[in-house]
Amino acid sequence: MRITVVGLGYVGSVASAAFSSLGHDVVGVDISYATVEAFRDGVLPIYEPGLNEVITESMQNGNLRFSQIENMDDSLGEIVVIATGTPTLSNGVSDLSQIKQSVAWSMELMPDEGIVLMKSTVPPGTGRMIKKELLQDTTLRYVANPEFLREGKAVHDWFHPERIVIGGQSDAISLVKSLYRGIDAPFVETDITSAEMIKYASNAFLATKISYINEIASLCDKIAADIDDVAAGIGLDSRIGSSFLNAGVGFGGSCLPKDLKAFRRFAEDNDQAAEIMSAVTLVNDRQRLLPYKFLVSTFGSISGLRVAVLGLAFKPDTDDIRDAPSIDLIRALLGDGALVNAYDPRALKNSRDILREGVRFQESLSDCFHDVQAILIMTEWPEIVDYDWKWIADQASSGCVLFDGRNALNPDDMISYGFKYKGVGRGVLSMDDSERNNYLT
Ligand code: UGA
Fold first, then answer.
1. Is the pLDDT of residue 70 over 90?
2. If you placed Cys at 77, which of 4, 124, 279, 328 could pair as Cys (CB 3.0 to 4.6 Å)?
3. Domain coordinates of the chain in residue numbers?
4. What's the pLDDT at 17?
5. What mean pLDDT is reported for the chain?
6. Residue 254 C-alpha to ligand 1 middle, in angstroms?
7. 301-337: b or e for each residue (b if 16 or more CB lie within 10 Å)?
8. What are the beta bridge partners of residue 68?
């Protein structure tokens, strides 16, 4: 099948690569000349494990090419996949201008009865609106086919999805199902608005699980219970499940925070207070500043405090720092005059672009620790977790505070190296022997 993918961000680039590797004839287009050139040259503008390999193979097989939008004057494929951005405005409204522009542009060049396939995340009701406002006088069909790709694992998730959701009319659904031939997953066939709702409700539920476990972790901290054991005990109930129960400094990224905000606004626009979602956001905003609050409570003033922040990306295996907890944290530290060393294996460039002043970005992890008084882990990159922490303790100032914002290290080891260790909800594990005895006796 001939497919045109509009928008070469995280979703569009993976969709282009994956559909072409399934044997379809794909053109990936973008408005940006620089982006298109980067894909053609094999120097991807994003870091996504495995993506480069799939793209290279498909280009070599002749199944995939890239083009700038304005150079596409021949007819587009019978399927046009829309994967342009839907940023959330400050009032929570989703900005659908890129989506509408992409649909309008596609309409001019698509063959009759072609399918507009929406991959971008759009608020429920958007498909209906596009059909009414843009597609009404055409023979084009519209299908909602949301993605459930995790950054850092997007290529794997594409080829091994837990479900493929397709919303639309039955003839269009059948055609879209055939695009995924070769992939083993259950299909959820539904109407357009329900498909859109599945996407938002899924992300909101994942965010809810994280804030829920973080709230329980705060209680564990109060009474010296251990969140790791509590989460394991909860998660063994198959009705609950064990994933997304890792307590820490909260969720970030371009999806969960943005979609939650847009979903809240969507609910309010439909005369429904989004109480759960508001609480989820409140807890998450609080979590990302836990390390800052811990330093203030430990040191009083943190002006001049020498701090190493490890991990800037919103999670491992990505260079993405959009809405990353590390950014809010660093801004708070700098605001109080702390001296910040920062390191990330992949996200240094992106971080430099937005945190211009005040941070000393280190090219190597080993350069972060000389005489630091506090170390804050914000992303559980294996390079950071598996480092020689005894060596780090020797470089750092004696009695250095170690805030493990992802509960990734072994507290007993860290305490034995001389750190003043603090995790999130790790109760007695975070305490030194004398404090521990107070609780255990
Ligand atoms: C999320 C969803 O997981 C995908 O299914 C969805 O397709 C995607 O958004 C999207 O809408 O496009 P992603 O943003 O890549 O994917 O990241 P996640 O793996 O969901 O992690 C989000 C955040 O939650 C990260 O900051 C992570 O550190 C945090 N997290 C995750 C926790 O704090 N605790 C956990 O137990 C799990």
1. no
2. 4
3. 2-190, 214-441
4. 97
5. 94
6. 9
7. ebeebbbbbbbbbbbbbbbbbbbbbbbbbbbbbbeee
8. 30
Helix axes 227-235, 192-223, angle to 10 degrees: 140
From 150, 197, 286, mutation site for ligand 1 pocket: most ligand atoms within 8 A of C-beta? 150
What pTM value is reported for the model? 0.94
Task: Give the pLDDT score at 69.
Answer: 86
Q: Which positions ≥6 away from 217 have C-beta within 8 Å? A: 227, 247, 424, 425
pLDDT at 75: 75
Q: Which CATH architecture has domain 214-441?
A: 3-Layer(aba) Sandwich (3.40)
Ligand 1 in contact with 96 (CB < 6 A)? no
Closest among 378, 373, 415, 416 to 395, alpha carbons compared: 373
**150: burial class by Cβ within 10 Å (0-12, 13-18, 19+)?**
middle
Distance (Å, whole) CA 59 – CA 148: 25
Residue 57 — pLDDT band, cuts 50, 70, 90? Answer: very high
Probe target for ligand 1 pocket from 122, 203, 245, with the most ligand atoms within 8 Å of CB: 203
Is the shortest distance between the CB of 246 and ligand 1 below 6 Å? yes
pLDDT digits (tens, 9 = 90+) for 276-333: 999 999 999 999 999 999 999 999 999 999 999 999 999 999 999 999 999 999 999 9
Cα-to-centroid distance, 239 and ligand 1 (Å): 20
d(CA 154, CA 148): 9
The number of the ligand 1 atom at minimal distance from the alpha carbon of 248 is 33
* Ligand 1: centre distance to CA 435 (Å): 35
Q: Which of 107-116, 151-160, 428-437 has the lowest mean pLDDT?
A: 428-437
Fold of 2-190: Rossmann fold (3.40.50)
For ligand 1, atom 22, name the residue with the nearest CA: 251
Q: Which residue is associated with the tokens 């979609």?
A: 259
**CATH topology match: 2-190 vs 214-441:** yes
The three-state secondary structure class of 77 is coil
Is 235 a pocket residue for ligand 1 (Cβ < 6 Å)? no
Residue 400 is among the residues annotated as catalytic for this protein: no
Kindly give the distance from the C-alpha atom of residue 150 to the centroid of ligand 1, in angstroms, as a whole number: 6
Q: Token pair of 3, please?
A: 């497919």
- Does 251 sit in the ligand 1 pocket, CB within 6 Å? yes
**Model pLDDT for residues 205-246, shown as the tens digit of each residue:** 999 999 999 999 999 999 999 999 999 999 999 999 999 999
